[in-house]
Amino acid sequence: MINNNMLRNFRKNLKLSNKEIETEVGLKNKSSIYYIEKSFKDNKTVKYLLLLREKGVDINAFFDNLNKTK
Fold it and tell me: pTM of the prediction?
């Protein structure tokens, strides 16, 4: 089940530091991390990815391809 604490729990389980997240994601401060963790379900990109997944798109392949070009 998706809830507002899911991303925070992932971050804590992975022991990701605020600095690491800020650097990798391009955030300015840790309040941005809080905002992302609390409002990700309202993000249009997330909604679009969910729609694509519901229509049968392999979202893991999408992210795998992004990682190759990183």
Answer: 0.69
SS (H, E, C) the chain: CCCCCHHHHHHHHHCCCHHHHHHHHCCCCHHHHHHHHHHHHHCHHHHHHHHHHHCCCCHHHHHHHHHHCC
- Residue 51 and residue 19: Cα distance in Å, rounded? 32
**Phi/psi of residue 54, nearest 5 degrees:** -60, -30
Residues 32 and 22 sit within 8 Å (Cβ to Cβ): yes
Q: In the prediction, which pLDDT does 2 show? A: 60
Residues 6+ apart with CB under 8 A from 25: 36
- Average pLDDT, integer, range 45-66: 92
Contact 59, 49 (CB under 8 A): yes
What is the phi/psi pair of residue 59, to 5°? -65, -30
